[in-house]
Amino acid sequence: MKIAASFIALTLGLAPVAIGAEEISAKTFQPIWRDAPPATSETELDRLNRAFVQLANNSRPAIVQIRVTGQETKAGQSEAQSSRGSGYFIDPQGYILTAQHVIDKAKDIEVRLADGQRLPARMIGADSQIDVAILKIKTEKEVPVLSFADSDAIRVGDLALVFGYPFGRESSMNLGIISRAGRTYADSASFDYIQTDAGAYAGGSGGPLLNRQGHVVGMITMASERGNMGFATPINLIKKLLPRLINGEKFAWGWLGVQMSDISLEQATALGLHSVKGVVVSTVLPGQPAARGGLQKQDVILSVNDNYVDSPRDVVRMVGGLEAGRVVRLTIVRKGQTIQLSVPLGIKPELAKAREG
């Protein structure tokens, strides 16, 4: 029988196979790898590793996945759409913070907890401009929460951690540093994004950006195309808005009604500027706040409420962080003369085709 088995193997182009169990016994097998010896002492890296594991264990129970179903009309037909994002508990009674674009046009919202439990959620409040939303689930027991830190205290180079459910998979933790500290402004909802190289991916929007203590310093709302950079709204700004969002209040953010552009060296000379700074007004929309407030085409805006501006985006951000009805102070240069204007802000029309910036 052994000869016959060898003949069949050769006929099929295979090497003869030994069938004796004693020939492949583990007693005679010599491994080609080397097993690591047990650790005899703890190193600095061991302690750092343990700290990261503990931080993950403490934070992950408060991170949730948000699953949204909605309806979208295409070619006159209504189609079911689904999307997923991230969020986190901020109150033991089941309040969840996430990004508004995660739940935009949602018909049904479902939350998956860290233990796999899936529960329906309802929206409490949201704002599309700041991109923040508050959800709530019904829970019979208190849920784990993440605490807020002072986002104005972070520095470039600080350790940063991003938690979320990228690509709709299991929750994950990414480690990096603060690449740009971001900024908030007093008496305004204007802000600059916090940037981190901890990364952010599709499905991670709405997840928290944590400091080394595991406290929230921001909420991830944007990512680079490659996912190697994440951008977070500072948590200090969200703190300002939360009380009104929880009460279901709506925000009417202000606008000027202008179009602007960066200033070139040639324009700076023609407009009588000693240095290239500010932004030039290219169009003043008739009947809008800027026109009523006396702003003219070719005016150069130097500052908004005493905050210097270098790009149209700066103006849009600072004006958009003030509610309609507020009076904004503009420092402008007109034909070589510096002028101060006070302009009451209006409400941006819903269907405005001309955008500021």
Q: How many runs of DSSP E, i.e. beta strands?
A: 22
* Shape, principal axes of CA atoms: globular
Portion in strands: 35-45%
Give me the CATH fold name of the largest domain.
Thrombin, subunit H
H/E element order: HHEEEHEEEEEEEEEEEHEEHEHEEHEEE
Question: What's the story with the biggest beta sheet?
Answer: 6 strands, antiparallel, barrel
Which structural class is indicated by helix and strand composition? Answer: alpha+beta
Return the average pLDDT rounded to an integer.
86
Helix content: 10-25%
Number of domains: 2
Corresponding CATH architecture of the largest domain: Beta Barrel
Gap between N and C termini = 86 Å
Question: What top-tier CATH class of the largest domain fits best?
Answer: Mainly Beta
Low-confidence stretches: 1-14
- Rg measurement, Å: 29 Å
| Count, helices | 7
Structure, explained:
The protein has about 350 residues and is of the alpha+beta class. The protein has two domains: about 45-250, Thrombin, subunit H (Beta Barrel), CATH 2.40.10.120; about 255-345, Roll (Pdz3 Domain), CATH 2.30.42.10. The chain has helices spanning about 1-10, 45-60, 100-105, 235-245, 265-270, 290, 310-320, and strands spanning about 65-75, 75-90, 95-100, 105-110, 120-125, 130-135, 160-165, 170-180, 185, 190, 195, 210, 215-225, 230-235, 255, 260, 280-285, 300-305, 305-310, 325-335, 335-345, 345. The strands form five sheets. A six-stranded antiparallel barrel has the order 1-2-3-6-5-4. Strands 7-8-11-14-13-12 form a six-stranded antiparallel barrel. Strand 7 and strand 8 form a beta hairpin. The protein starts with a helix and ends in a 10-residue tail after the last strand. Mean pLDDT is about 85; it is low at about 1-15.
